[in-house]
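DM between two lab members

TW: hey, do you still have the Tetratricopeptide (TPR) repeat protein entry open?
JB: yeah, one sec
JB: this one, 227 aa:
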Amino acid sequence: MVARLLDEDPEGAYGYSRVALRLASRVAAVREAAGFAAYANQKYGEALGEFRAAKRMTGNIDLWPVMADCERGLGRPEKALDMAGAPEVHKLDKAGQVEMRLVAAGARRDMGQLDAAIVTLQSPELAANSVQPWTARLRYAYADALLAAERQSEAREWFAKAVEADRDGSTDASDRLAELDGVEFVDAMAEDEDDEVQAPASSEASEHEDEDQDEDQDEGADQGDKD
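TW: and the structure you got?
JB:
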């Protein structure tokens, strides 16, 4: 239930996670789910505690990147960078290593080190032509860092590459690209609503015109009778 609600109702997911913790706090999967629910609600200290508990129970290091990101959320980017250089990172699979790179780049940006963030994201995974589950997010982060460094033409190129890789709409790369190109989108639904609001006024005006015409015809008939 927690996993199902995380995207659509983070607060609801968090509520369910608290109930689950009371019932099965010694189950690693419950602690991990509670961690993600807290993380989704920006309760980073609580999330970090749950992730640490899950890691102790299983010995699994898959949560290492999100634990480091919790350190960022707590205002400790230096700690996140320490974790990015820890031996645990070498035990992560490719997806985990890319995620750790994203967190490390974010920590560099938190510290105002834009150039270092850009260099951190430069990797074989970024340069690869093949599209992997992490490709869109990696390209997006790189484009965003370039834009923050006022390297607009390069940023536009990488936002476009992020759009190509973003098959499930996991980023707003298309909106960012359109913004750079000066494209403005018109909300067709809003226009339809405006037309609907204006329509009754036009109808009312027509009704008044019809009433005036009827009155003129009646007056003309009365005058004819008098004659």
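TW: got it. The chain has a mean pLDDT of 86. The first helix runs from residue 2 to 5.
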